[in-house]
Amino acid sequence: MHHLYRALLKLQFGDTDLRIGRQRIAWGTSRFWSPLDLLNPFSPVALEREERLGVDAILVEHKFGPVSRLAAVVAPSRFSGENSRALQWHDNARGVDYSFTGGRFRGNDVIGIDVIGQIGQAGVRAELTRVHPREGKAFGRYVVGIDYAFANTLTLSAEFYRDGSGAGSTAAYDFVTLAAGARQTLARRYLGLHAGYEITPLLKLNTDIVLNLDDRSRFVAPSLTYSIRTNLDGSIGVRWFGGAAGSEYARPPNAAYLSLQWFF
Fold first, then answer.
1. Residue (of 263, 171, 177, 189) closest to 32 by Cα position
2. Which sign, positive or negative, has the C-alpha torsion 209, 185, 213, 147?
3. Which CATH class is domain 83-262?
4. What pTM, to 2 d.p., does this model score?
5. 3-state DSSP: the chain helix, strand, coil percent, rounded to 5?
6. Are 261 and 235 in contact (CB under 8 A)?
7. Model confidence over 201-248: pLDDT tens digits?
8. Domain positions in the chain
9. Closest to 44 measured CA to CA, from 26, 30, 54
10. What's the CA gap between 12 and 60, in Å, rounded?
Protein backbone atom coordinates (compact mmCIF):
# COMPACT_ATOMS: atom_id res chain seq x y z
CA MET A 1 0.00 0.00 0.00
CA HIS A 2 1.26 3.47 -0.92
CA HIS A 3 0.31 6.75 0.71
CA LEU A 4 0.76 10.11 -1.02
CA TYR A 5 2.19 12.51 1.56
CA ARG A 6 2.63 15.71 -0.46
CA ALA A 7 1.65 16.68 -3.99
CA LEU A 8 1.53 20.11 -5.60
CA LEU A 9 0.45 21.30 -9.04
CA LYS A 10 1.74 24.71 -10.08
CA LEU A 11 0.60 26.59 -13.18
CA GLN A 12 1.78 30.00 -14.37
CA PHE A 13 -0.17 32.39 -16.58
CA GLY A 14 1.98 35.46 -17.16
CA ASP A 15 2.19 37.24 -13.81
CA THR A 16 -0.38 34.95 -12.18
CA ASP A 17 0.54 31.74 -10.36
CA LEU A 18 -1.89 28.97 -9.46
CA ARG A 19 -0.89 26.33 -6.91
CA ILE A 20 -3.10 23.40 -5.94
CA GLY A 21 -2.13 20.87 -3.28
CA ARG A 22 -0.17 20.73 -0.05
CA GLN A 23 2.01 23.81 0.27
CA ARG A 24 3.64 26.19 2.70
CA ILE A 25 1.76 29.51 2.66
CA ALA A 26 4.05 31.75 4.68
CA TRP A 27 1.97 34.69 5.85
CA GLY A 28 3.60 36.53 8.73
CA THR A 29 7.20 37.39 9.52
CA SER A 30 7.74 36.52 13.18
CA ARG A 31 10.16 33.96 14.66
CA PHE A 32 8.29 32.59 17.70
CA TRP A 33 4.64 33.59 17.24
CA SER A 34 2.74 34.74 14.17
CA PRO A 35 -0.85 36.00 14.48
CA LEU A 36 -1.08 36.01 10.67
CA ASP A 37 0.32 32.53 9.99
CA LEU A 38 -3.11 30.97 10.52
CA LEU A 39 -2.92 28.41 7.72
CA ASN A 40 0.32 26.85 9.02
CA PRO A 41 0.21 27.40 12.79
CA PHE A 42 3.28 26.26 14.70
CA SER A 43 4.31 25.93 18.31
CA PRO A 44 7.14 28.17 19.59
CA VAL A 45 8.52 25.17 21.52
CA ALA A 46 8.40 22.65 18.64
CA LEU A 47 11.58 20.63 18.17
CA GLU A 48 11.83 21.53 14.47
CA ARG A 49 10.09 24.87 14.30
CA GLU A 50 11.44 25.57 10.82
CA GLU A 51 9.82 22.42 9.41
CA ARG A 52 6.21 23.14 8.41
CA LEU A 53 3.88 20.42 7.16
CA GLY A 54 2.03 22.82 4.91
CA VAL A 55 -1.68 22.96 4.18
CA ASP A 56 -3.91 21.50 1.46
CA ALA A 57 -5.06 24.59 -0.39
CA ILE A 58 -5.71 26.41 -3.65
CA LEU A 59 -3.58 29.55 -3.91
CA VAL A 60 -3.82 32.19 -6.65
CA GLU A 61 -1.20 34.93 -6.63
CA HIS A 62 -0.92 37.84 -9.06
CA LYS A 63 2.21 40.01 -9.19
CA PHE A 64 1.73 43.70 -9.92
CA GLY A 65 5.44 44.52 -9.68
CA PRO A 66 8.76 43.31 -8.23
CA VAL A 67 7.31 43.39 -4.68
CA SER A 68 3.58 44.08 -4.83
CA ARG A 69 1.22 41.13 -5.13
CA LEU A 70 -2.33 40.03 -4.36
CA ALA A 71 -2.96 36.49 -3.10
CA ALA A 72 -6.21 34.56 -2.61
CA VAL A 73 -6.41 31.19 -0.85
CA VAL A 74 -9.02 28.55 -0.08
CA ALA A 75 -8.07 25.76 2.33
CA PRO A 76 -10.04 23.07 4.21
CA SER A 77 -9.88 23.25 8.00
CA ARG A 78 -8.65 20.30 10.06
CA PHE A 79 -10.37 21.58 13.19
CA SER A 80 -13.72 23.27 12.54
CA GLY A 81 -14.75 21.47 9.37
CA GLU A 82 -15.09 24.82 7.55
CA ASN A 83 -13.00 26.04 4.67
CA SER A 84 -10.61 28.94 5.27
CA ARG A 85 -10.82 31.75 2.72
CA ALA A 86 -8.56 34.79 2.70
CA LEU A 87 -6.99 37.59 0.68
CA GLN A 88 -3.62 39.24 1.23
CA TRP A 89 -2.09 42.33 -0.36
CA HIS A 90 1.69 42.73 -0.03
CA ASP A 91 3.76 45.75 -1.02
CA ASN A 92 6.74 47.94 -0.08
CA ALA A 93 6.86 51.65 0.66
CA ARG A 94 10.08 53.55 1.45
CA GLY A 95 11.94 50.40 2.40
CA VAL A 96 9.17 48.98 4.59
CA ASP A 97 7.44 45.75 3.60
CA TYR A 98 3.79 45.53 4.64
CA SER A 99 0.80 43.26 4.14
CA PHE A 100 -2.94 43.54 4.68
CA THR A 101 -4.83 40.30 5.28
CA GLY A 102 -8.52 39.56 5.64
CA GLY A 103 -10.63 36.44 5.56
CA ARG A 104 -12.27 33.63 7.49
CA PHE A 105 -10.01 31.11 9.21
CA ARG A 106 -11.63 28.05 10.86
CA GLY A 107 -14.91 29.87 11.21
CA ASN A 108 -13.37 33.07 12.64
CA ASP A 109 -13.33 36.37 10.75
CA VAL A 110 -9.82 37.85 10.85
CA ILE A 111 -8.29 41.10 9.63
CA GLY A 112 -4.63 41.89 10.10
CA ILE A 113 -1.53 43.79 9.11
CA ASP A 114 2.18 43.07 9.32
CA VAL A 115 5.15 45.35 8.72
CA ILE A 116 8.87 44.72 8.59
CA GLY A 117 11.59 47.34 8.24
CA GLN A 118 14.77 48.69 9.75
CA ILE A 119 15.68 51.26 12.39
CA GLY A 120 19.37 52.03 12.19
CA GLN A 121 21.17 48.69 12.03
CA ALA A 122 18.32 46.77 13.69
CA GLY A 123 15.55 44.95 11.89
CA VAL A 124 12.07 45.49 13.34
CA ARG A 125 8.77 43.77 12.64
CA ALA A 126 5.21 43.69 13.91
CA GLU A 127 1.99 41.78 13.30
CA LEU A 128 -1.48 42.71 14.47
CA THR A 129 -4.78 40.87 14.00
CA ARG A 130 -8.37 41.37 15.10
CA VAL A 131 -10.36 38.16 15.42
CA HIS A 132 -14.18 37.97 15.43
CA PRO A 133 -15.20 34.44 16.45
CA ARG A 134 -18.60 32.97 15.67
CA GLU A 135 -19.31 32.92 19.40
CA GLY A 136 -17.96 35.17 22.11
CA LYS A 137 -16.26 38.55 22.05
CA ALA A 138 -13.78 39.79 19.49
CA PHE A 139 -10.14 39.89 20.57
CA GLY A 140 -6.77 41.00 19.29
CA ARG A 141 -3.37 39.40 18.91
CA TYR A 142 -0.11 41.21 18.24
CA VAL A 143 3.61 40.59 18.21
CA VAL A 144 6.53 43.02 17.98
CA GLY A 145 10.10 41.95 17.38
CA ILE A 146 13.64 43.21 16.85
CA ASP A 147 16.78 41.61 15.39
CA TYR A 148 20.37 42.80 15.57
CA ALA A 149 23.54 41.31 14.07
CA PHE A 150 26.95 42.27 15.45
CA ALA A 151 30.13 42.29 13.36
CA ASN A 152 31.52 39.36 15.39
CA THR A 153 28.69 37.09 14.02
CA LEU A 154 26.58 37.33 17.19
CA THR A 155 22.88 37.74 16.33
CA LEU A 156 20.18 38.59 18.85
CA SER A 157 16.40 38.58 18.49
CA ALA A 158 13.54 39.39 20.85
CA GLU A 159 9.76 39.16 20.47
CA PHE A 160 6.86 40.18 22.68
CA TYR A 161 3.53 38.49 22.02
CA ARG A 162 0.08 39.23 23.41
CA ASP A 163 -2.94 37.01 22.77
CA GLY A 164 -6.28 38.49 23.80
CA SER A 165 -7.89 35.05 23.72
CA GLY A 166 -5.49 33.59 26.29
CA ALA A 167 -6.63 32.39 29.70
CA GLY A 168 -6.41 34.73 32.67
CA SER A 169 -5.30 32.00 35.08
CA THR A 170 -3.72 28.55 34.97
CA ALA A 171 -7.02 27.01 36.12
CA ALA A 172 -8.57 28.05 32.79
CA TYR A 173 -5.82 26.56 30.60
CA ASP A 174 -7.13 24.33 27.79
CA PHE A 175 -4.34 21.75 27.44
CA VAL A 176 -6.52 19.51 25.24
CA THR A 177 -6.86 22.19 22.56
CA LEU A 178 -3.14 22.93 22.82
CA ALA A 179 -2.25 19.25 22.30
CA ALA A 180 -4.57 19.06 19.28
CA GLY A 181 -2.72 21.95 17.63
CA ALA A 182 -5.74 24.27 17.56
CA ARG A 183 -3.84 26.67 19.86
CA GLN A 184 -0.13 27.47 20.07
CA THR A 185 -0.20 29.13 23.50
CA LEU A 186 -2.45 29.22 26.57
CA ALA A 187 -1.82 32.51 28.39
CA ARG A 188 -1.83 36.13 27.25
CA ARG A 189 1.73 37.52 27.45
CA TYR A 190 4.96 35.96 26.23
CA LEU A 191 8.57 36.89 25.55
CA GLY A 192 10.81 35.06 23.09
CA LEU A 193 14.60 35.46 22.93
CA HIS A 194 17.13 34.05 20.45
CA ALA A 195 20.92 34.23 20.32
CA GLY A 196 23.17 32.77 17.64
CA TYR A 197 26.96 32.81 17.42
CA GLU A 198 29.43 31.33 14.91
CA ILE A 199 32.19 29.82 17.04
CA THR A 200 33.93 28.85 13.80
CA PRO A 201 32.70 29.04 10.19
CA LEU A 202 31.57 25.40 10.61
CA LEU A 203 30.32 25.40 14.21
CA LYS A 204 27.37 27.52 15.40
CA LEU A 205 25.75 27.90 18.82
CA ASN A 206 22.04 28.77 19.06
CA THR A 207 19.86 29.34 22.09
CA ASP A 208 16.09 29.93 22.19
CA ILE A 209 14.24 31.03 25.32
CA VAL A 210 10.45 31.27 25.64
CA LEU A 211 8.94 32.86 28.74
CA ASN A 212 5.28 32.80 29.75
CA LEU A 213 5.07 36.16 31.49
CA ASP A 214 1.74 35.35 33.14
CA ASP A 215 2.52 32.08 34.93
CA ARG A 216 6.35 32.53 34.77
CA SER A 217 7.00 29.14 33.23
CA ARG A 218 9.89 28.86 30.77
CA PHE A 219 11.48 26.92 27.93
CA VAL A 220 15.23 26.98 27.19
CA ALA A 221 16.78 25.24 24.17
CA PRO A 222 20.55 25.58 23.50
CA SER A 223 22.03 23.68 20.54
CA LEU A 224 25.25 23.25 18.58
CA THR A 225 25.23 22.77 14.80
CA TYR A 226 28.28 21.55 12.89
CA SER A 227 28.72 21.43 9.12
CA ILE A 228 30.14 17.94 8.69
CA ARG A 229 30.58 18.37 4.96
CA THR A 230 28.84 20.05 2.05
CA ASN A 231 25.06 19.60 2.40
CA LEU A 232 25.37 17.58 5.62
CA ASP A 233 24.78 19.19 9.05
CA GLY A 234 24.74 17.61 12.49
CA SER A 235 23.09 19.11 15.57
CA ILE A 236 23.03 18.30 19.26
CA GLY A 237 20.89 20.08 21.81
CA VAL A 238 18.82 19.97 24.97
CA ARG A 239 15.31 21.18 25.78
CA TRP A 240 14.57 22.35 29.33
CA PHE A 241 11.08 23.11 30.58
CA GLY A 242 10.27 24.60 33.97
CA GLY A 243 7.61 26.29 36.04
CA ALA A 244 5.19 25.91 38.91
CA ALA A 245 2.70 23.04 38.97
CA GLY A 246 -0.13 23.69 36.52
CA SER A 247 1.85 26.22 34.47
CA GLU A 248 2.16 25.94 30.70
CA TYR A 249 5.79 24.86 30.39
CA ALA A 250 5.95 22.70 33.53
CA ARG A 251 4.25 19.74 31.84
CA PRO A 252 6.49 18.78 28.85
CA PRO A 253 9.47 16.52 29.66
CA ASN A 254 13.06 17.67 29.34
CA ALA A 255 14.95 16.04 26.47
CA ALA A 256 18.27 15.83 24.65
CA TYR A 257 18.54 15.15 20.94
CA LEU A 258 20.97 14.47 18.10
CA SER A 259 20.02 15.11 14.48
CA LEU A 260 21.52 14.88 11.00
CA GLN A 261 20.27 16.87 8.02
CA TRP A 262 21.20 16.03 4.45
CA PHE A 263 20.29 18.61 1.80
CA PHE A 264 19.92 17.45 -1.78
1. 189
2. positive
3. mainly beta
4. 0.88
5. 5, 55, 40
6. yes
7. 999 999 999 999 999 999 999 999 999 988 899 999 999 999 999 999
8. 83-262
9. 30
10. 10
